[in-house]
Amino acid sequence: MKYNCEMIRDLLPLYVDQVCSPSSAHAVEEHIRECNACASILGEMSSADPILDQEIYAERSRVLDTQAKFFKRRSAVAGSIIGGIFALPILICLIVNLASGAGLTWFFIVLAAMFIPASLIVVPLMVPENKFLWTIGAFTASLLGLLGVCSIYSGSGWFLIAGPAVLFGLCVIFSPFIVHTKPVAKLLGNQKGLTVFAADTLTFILMMTMIGIRTGSSGFFRIAFACSLMPVAWIWLLFLLIRYPKWNGLLKAAVCILVSALFGFFSNTIVGMMLGSGLYLPKFDLSFASGDSINGFVSWCILLTGTVLAAIFGVCGALKNNRK
């Protein structure tokens, strides 16, 4: 016989369900014409009661649904109990505030503070799906709420700085995970990376704008723009070079290294020109007599090292393309 019986018997369930490839089906049919044992097994499989199979499948689905509902109920009960525990300090603070005649000063601070652990513990237990997305949203809202309440009761407007700064930090940390959750990933499609970079950039701009408004300094925005433009432009350029060109990885690495070396060399020059300090180019000074000489030496080392590495990766990438 051309085919091994053990191999054919592994294919028989797929053949009966008509989900195997045409070549596998041809191998099974050719084998059972010569092997009575495998033909007998195929006959037993084909004569199985389809109604019984459907009943088994339906029963399995019912068991899984019952277990899922059971665990959901247990999660909801646990979430309710934990929520009640978190409500105790809120109730105690309310009673103490009213009994002491202090009004509701600390009550709202305690209330806002209790929302933070509740968002991390109660929310994942209560929501049926997309737990991570709901948890991050509730945690962000509760944290900003606590900062806002503390800012109001402290009698200052520092929330305009703290709030956007916290939002920017959370966005940098959690946005790469948020875009991969099921509803968000379905909405964004292949634009997840672009969305993450756009969200980080917008929250950074919001943070710097609020800091400028809060400080009230006339020259803040000019300095902030000059110092922020180069790193933001560098990060965006690296992202675009990695994401969109159809080059191989070695060529992308070469271009990214060269771009990084150029940014490192000319960053002080561009910042100085934007601030009105005139044209400044790093000098290759080995005397190390001042901070400028050390800074110039480091800048030249970055440029030369980056250029050499970029040339090496570029040559390797070109050779790889030629081999293909």
What does this molecule look like?
The longest helix has 51 residues. Helix content is 81%, strand content 0%. The chain is flat, with a radius of gyration of 33 Å. The model has no long low-confidence stretch (mean pLDDT 83). Helix 1 crosses helix 2 and helix 10 runs antiparallel to helix 11. Among the domains are: 48 residues; 88 residues; 83 residues, no CATH class. By secondary structure, it is mainly alpha-helical. The protein is built from twelve helices and no strands.
Overall pLDDT, averaged?
A: 83
Number of strands: 0
**Which ranges are low-confidence, i.e. pLDDT below 50, for 5 or more consecutive residues?**
none
The largest sheet, given as strand count, sense and whether it forms a barrel, is:
none
Strand content: under 5%
* Total helical elements: 12
Helix-and-strand structural type: mainly alpha
The succession of helices and strands, N to C, reads HHHHHHHHHHHH
Brief sketch in words of this structure:
By secondary structure, the chain is mainly α. Among the domains are: 1-48; 67-154; 242-324, no CATH class. The protein has twelve helices and no strands.
Topology:
Blueprint: H1 5-16, H2 22-32, H3 36-46, H4 50-100, H5 105-126, H6 131-153, H7 159-178, H8 182-188, H9 192-215, H10 220-243, H11 249-274, H12 291-323
Helix pairs in contact: 1-2, 1-3, 4-5, 5-6, 6-7, 7-9, 9-10, 10-11, 11-12
